[in-house]
Every structure is written in C-alpha cells, then in structure tokens.
User: Fold this.
Amino acid sequence: MIWPTLIENKEVSWIRHRDIHLLTVGRYTYTSDQRFEAIHSPHTEDWSLRIKYPQRKDSGIYECQISTTPPVGHQIYLKVVVKHLVETLTGGFYDKEIIVCVTEPRSEVLGGHELYVDNGSTINLTCIVEFTAEIPTTVQWSHENKPINFDSPRGGISLVTIKGPTTTSRLLIQKASSSDSGEYACDSLVAKPAIIRVHILNGEHPAAMHHGQASIPLCPPIISALIVPLALIFKNLRL
Assistant:
C-alpha cells in the first residue's frame, strides 16, 4: 500500500495545462469557475477532481501533483465531445448528452504485439503517439534494446515521422533476415514505449498468427460531471 507513504501530510494539487492554471490545492479551489471541485473521501487516500457540466473548452491536459520533494506529478488527457444537440422551442440548442474521455498519453505499434514476416520481405512498423501534453520532438526506435542505426552497412532501413496531435512514425526494414527478428520499441519520450516482437519466417507457418488493430479508448457517457480518482492515476507510481 503506497498511499499513506505517498500522500500523508502532503498537499494534492490539480493544474490545467491549457493556461497553467492552479485549480485546487487540497480541498481549496483556486479558480472562479465553480464547476471545478476537489473531492476527498474521509479516512482514505483517494482524491478526485470533479468538473460539473463539462464543456468542449474543458478538453486538454490536466495534472495532479503531490507536494513531495521533488514533487510527484502525473498528466491525463481529457476529451469532451457533444454527442448530439437538441433544439429548444426558442430555436436554441442544448447538450442532451456529453461524452467525456480521460486517457493517459499513449503510444502503440499498429498490428498487435507480434508480427510475422517472410524472409526477404519488408518489415513495416507504424507507431502512433497520442493524448500527449505536447507534440513529441522525436520518436526513437530500438531493436533488442539497441538504437537502430540508419547509417549501418546493412542499409535498407528508413524512417518517416509525421508530428501532430497524433504523431505517426513508420519504420521500414527491407529484405528482412533472421538477424532482424526480435523486439522493437518505439519511444516518444512523452509516453510509455510501445513494443512489438517481430518473427522472420523461413517458409514455415507460425502456430498462431496475431492480427491486431489499434485500440482507441472508448469514452463512457457522463451527463453532468466528471470524477477523476487520484488512486487510479497514481496506481503505478512508486515513491
């Protein structure tokens, strides 16, 4: 149980990255927008940020921090989408239902966790990075924990990276051989690295073929409020 060690006698703060605005410290609210509220369950280490009546403008990066030395912080991405509008008798519209989605920065290599490629063909790996606080400055690829050398005598290795709200990095390795088998990692430095294992086939058929597709987190329908439990956000952190 890490919560008593992590939070006891420490302040929990929430910050909105869009304008670097301090929203709450402990139970106190530091914004004139009364829709924001810090929630603490008595006798527990669970803290939440509640946003009443979420709006499109609330989308963006939020960070919760604990006043340790040095401070411990973690960012999440909030997306608010109006599902559909209903027209009123006066000709105006109101939001009948709102979908909100909270997700951490993520990276993924499309195609699943394993890829089977015939000897002599091209290895085609595509990595996507999304829900980040800022656009990644670089995307690094490694093979068996060693950075890929694009200038190696082997040749036939190329990389195309397109940066944006969703960054895409495509690694091509021509004329694959057995030495190209192994674990490949895509690291944007702003999200957890994505890993895929490549198998080079020499005419044999794998016992199990894996055909995966990128999985996009689905947003649960929430009508009026968003609650982000701190326990869920920091469940993987260690002091």
